[in-house]
Backbone:
């Protein structure tokens, strides 16, 4: 299925990374990060956007009580730091590597604006992507604020089904092959890993889902 995090199902890394363009290739390098390394902090200068070549990156912020709020966990082909394109000069979130071999393609805002200026269709897709991403993040934050944990999990599973799911013709199940660990999912729905395990097993007992490390199945009997 079509994912909101991609432009028309195209890996952004293959489309945007400056090493693909002769004009920018010479001076372009990739940045490597280990697990728990920060790409940027809140209040840092916002003068770049970033593409993930490999690995995973956590985007979040800290609330007034000092609690970490995870907004998104991104993987290969995903774009982040995009508010810099819109004119933000200071970060209002942090970006942290959660893999030991994360590779990032940094793109200066000026370079990004040049690419957009030279291709109106591409520019439109960038703004469309940003709008869809903001809408998705706003919905997730609303879930964290107003819904109970089980409801948050159910709606997150629906989101995963849209982004990463397909119908299994043999069984009629909705099969979700996603890039998240259980720890990732727990962070994204604002709960602990033990609580997530309890809820997943409850849904399994209710014959709503079946799951393993590699996939989640929303069973036909629950549809």
Residues:
């Amino acid at each position: 299925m079509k994912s909101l995090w991609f432009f028309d199902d195209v890996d952004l890394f293959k489309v945007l990374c400056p090493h693909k363009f002769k004009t920018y290739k010479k001076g372009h390098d990739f940045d490597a990060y280990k697990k728990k390394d920060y790409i940027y902090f809140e209040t840092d200068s916002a003068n770049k956007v970033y593409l993930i070549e490999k690995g995973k990156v956590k985007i979040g912020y800290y609330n007034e009580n000092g609690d970490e709020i995870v907004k998104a966990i991104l993987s290969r082909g995903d774009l982040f730091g995009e508010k810099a394109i819109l004119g933000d000069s200071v970060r209002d979130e942090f970006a942290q590597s959660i893999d030991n071999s994360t590779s990032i393609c940094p793109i200066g805002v000026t370079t990004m604006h040049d690419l957009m200026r030279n291709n109106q269709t591409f520019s439109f897709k960038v703004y469309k992507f940003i709008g869809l991403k903001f809408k998705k993040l706003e919905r997730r934050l609303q879930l964290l604020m107003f819904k109970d944990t089980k409801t948050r999990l159910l709606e997150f599973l629906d989101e995963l089904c849209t982004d990463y799911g397909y119908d299994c013709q043999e069984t009629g199940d909705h099969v979700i092959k996603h890039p998240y660990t259980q720890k990732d999912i727990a962070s994204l729905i604002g709960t602990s890993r033990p609580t997530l395990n309890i809820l997943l097993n409850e849904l399994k007992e209710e014959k709503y889902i079946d799951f393993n490390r590699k996939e989640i199945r929303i069973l036909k009997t629950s549809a």
Observations:
- The CA atoms of residues 126 and 170 lie 38 Å apart.
